[in-house]
Design a protein that fits this description.
With 381 residues, the chain is mainly alpha-helical. The chain has 13 helices and 4 strands. It has a 4-stranded mixed sheet with strand order 2-1-3-4, with helices on both faces. The two termini are 31 Å apart.
Length: 381
């Protein structure tokens, strides 16, 4: 055990005293926060137009609608066409984005003898024209409903949506986090593990390590533990960046009060076991490869499989009840995360996931030890 501790300390010192390594751990979280925050701001800006001025032409407007529009368009500056232009000239101005809207009301609009058609011309390639069209047609629809109103639905200032902020947080987390967590955990482990053994092969330092009297099984365990801690640190930084950016990305407030200490502890167990599984798997790939480039190339198909399995979390917000599914690597992690985040954990399924994950990690370490004992694999003969 002392030998494992020495190797663990040596590896951690190498990772956390290297400025490039530390930057590689911290920067992804910062970039995720900035990227998702900017995306959220863009999406929110796209949903709320700042255009307040429109150039409009209207024909045959009934007097009843003038008061309706004056109230509905309060806060907007509307310039109405006063020149005597033909219909073709007005349409040409709208096409050239010189005007925003042209409304033609039929004669006897409100006499109730027929179903008249109101012509509203606009240019969908112009943001101002599209906004004006949405405003005017919205007001007209409300006015039409008021004339033939049989009943109202959820009228007034009463809050009819009884969903709590915690419930919304649970729904958002259950839909998004399993896939994103798998992506972060694998990416963090891939960036570190691909360089671990393959990099030492390229530098020629692997031979120096293996000629020491330390058992190769201890070397394998020490490296896996050090790589797992480093990958976990990278994933946690990325996770913090994601959580910090979610309010801007989703446009809603996030409340973590729904999750108690037990929930967070189970979430941590899933994250640690998944990171260790990815670390063992990618370290085996790195040990098999001849160079860092080859290790990265061999890791890409594994990454695709992980992302495809992660995408299954979008298919539902309820964890699978079949215990056998929790024996499947990665998929078991995803289902466990869904159960934890939705506050509906099946103790039997969660226990199966923990035991099977430990078994896979143990088998991986055993396989990695066998690879370390193979001169052909280590020295690429």
């Amino acid at each position: 055990m002392k030998a494992i501790g020495i190797i663990l300390k040596k590896e951690l010192k190498r990772y956390f005293t290297d400025v490039r390594m530390v930057a590689g751990i911290i920067l992804p979280g910062i970039l995720i926060f900035l990227l998702y925050s900017v995306m959220g701001n863009f999406m929110n800006d796209a949903n709320s137009s700042d255009i307040k001025e429109f150039y409009v032409a209207i024909e045959n407007e009934p007097s009843e609608l003038k008061d309706v529009f004056s109230k509905g368009l309060e806060g907007y500056k509307i310039t109405y066409l006063e020149d005597k232009l033909s219909k073709e000239e007005i349409l040409e101005k709208i096409e050239n984005k010189e005007m925003d809207l042209y409304i033609i009301y039929p004669n006897h609009l409100l006499d109730g003898t027929s179903v008249p058609n109101i012509e509203v011309y606009y240019n969908s390639a112009s943001e101002a024209s599209t906004t004006a069209y949405a405003l005017y047609t919205g007001i007209l629809n409300v006015f039409e409903d008021s004339l033939t109103n049989l009943f109202n639905i959820n009228s007034g200032d009463i809050q009819y949506d009884l969903a709590k902020e915690e419930d919304l947080t649970i729904r958002i987390f259950t839909m998004m986090l399993p896939f994103l967590l798998m992506t972060f955990l694998f990416s963090g482990a891939m960036g570190i593990c691909s360089e671990s053994i393959a990099g030492e092969k390229e530098r020629g330092t692997i031979a120096t390590l293996l000629v020491t009297p330390t058992k190769r099984s201890y070397i394998a365990i020490g490296k896996v533990m050090a790589l797992g801690i480093t990958a976990l640190a990278s994933a946690i930084v990325s996770f913090i960046g994601l959580i910090a950016s979610l309010p801007r990305l989703t446009g809603t407030s996030i409340s973590l009060s729904a999750y108690n200490f037990q929930t967070i502890l189970m979430l941590l167990v899933v994250i640690v076991l998944t990171v260790l599984f990815f670390t063992v798997l990618l370290t085996m790939v790195s040990t098999f490869a001849k160079s860092v480039k080859e290790a990265s190339s061999l890791s890409i198909p594994v990454m695709v499989i992980v992302m495809l399995l992660g995408a299954t979390s979008f298919m539902g917000t309820v964890a699978q009840a079949n215990p056998a599914l929790y024996l499947i690597p990665v998929y078991g992690s995803i289902q466990s995360l869904i159960g934890i985040l939705s506050m509906n954990v099946n103790p039997v399924c969660f226990t199966i996931f923990v035991i099977s994950s430990l078994a896979y990690i143990g088998l991986g370490v055993f396989g990695l030890t066998k690879m370390f004992n193979s001169e052909k694999i280590i020295f690429n003969h």
